[in-house]
Amino acid sequence: MIAFIVVLVVALFSSMLETINPLLGYVDEAIVLVFIVATFVKLLFLEKREVKMLDGWLIAGLILCSAFCIIAFIPNAMVGPYNTFWMQLYTFFGMIKFLLLFYCGRILIRDISLVRSILWVKKIAWIFTWCCLAAYAINLVVPLMQPFDTRFGIVTFSYGFGHPAPFSMVVILFTVMMVFFAFLQKTRMPYVYMLLNLFLVVTAGRSTAVGVYICFFLLLLILPHIRRLPVILFLVLGVFLVWFSWERIVNQFGSENTEARGVLLRTSVLIAKEHSPFGAGLGMFGSHASRLNYSPLYNEYHLSHVWGLSEFNPTFITDSYWAMIIGETGFLGAFLLVCLFLVTLCAIIRSTSGDFKIKLLVVFPFVYALFTSPVDTLLASGSVVSVMLVVIYMMSLAGEVTKSNDMRNSGGIDNV
């Protein structure tokens, strides 16, 4: 239990750790590798009975992942690789690490009790929020934090994280976990905590995160009082979110956008068309590998003059997750990856014990990551590891509490 919570906290604050030492930016990848090795050991050497965890969802994921792997590596095999094989493999690993972490995590933490960790996570969540609020208050008097941008008419900050996007994600993840604990333990909703965190998200200046947070808050106002969630409610919240983020969407996808992310997205579509149906190949566009070994595509498509995309200043090359997917694996690869996301989404819902409210809260972080991926850096920054760890954590708690309640109701254990 302690080891998992430590790993979860490290993953949540990995972006902050990266600002301390760039090498710590690889902690997300290290966590996934540790999960893979630990799961392999558990399956083969410790508990062979765990083979039954190879369910239909895992099989479907493996089939889609195998097809995606073939599609991704075909361009490099046909045309000849521009990047090294290890850089190609590293890029592919980054694309599917959410899948590896999710299915390995399901197996690895099975039969591990995490209920006692709830109190510790609550304390960490409150300490995090109060520290951020204190930092903002002190900064009003003595400037300590470097301003990131001006949004909503106020100066915004990243609070020590590398970018406001991962900071907003951590705030939302802590909020979702606190609400999940309230539903799981049947206690009062943490509305005060939610309002404090809403203020933090606003001061980070991420319009999409603010819109999602407001939708989440509005949903929780009625969620405790209904037995099923009407479809019309999703439509209303979706329309509100699109309206709230419309300016951001237009800026990202509009042809007049000359910023790195918008240019990357539009260019990736051109690359996918000209290299149909497989794309330009791994390590060629929008990936960390294409930044380390500067890809000739940036010169070919006249991107080397864009701020943040030049060979001498490639800071924003990895700013768009879907630009990397579309440009490197083509439309076919992007379609297969969307299918992988959908299979994982269904697997989370079907594998979570409890009523629809619990299922909704467990799947919410993953939905948030997918929804914001076209217009934000969440998936591109590797923060999907934090998202999947939180999902696995809540899934495990839901199953553990449901099993305990079933045993109590059947007289298997005494009431406590």
TrEMBL record:
The keyword Lipid biosynthesis is annotated on this UniProt entry: no
Listed transmembrane segments: 27-45, 57-79, 85-103, 124-145, 165-184, 196-223, 229-246, 330-350, 378-398
Annotated keywords: Membrane, Transmembrane, Transmembrane helix
InterPro entries noted in UniProt: WaaL-like
Protein name in the entry: Uncharacterized protein
Species in which this protein is naturally found: Listeria booriae
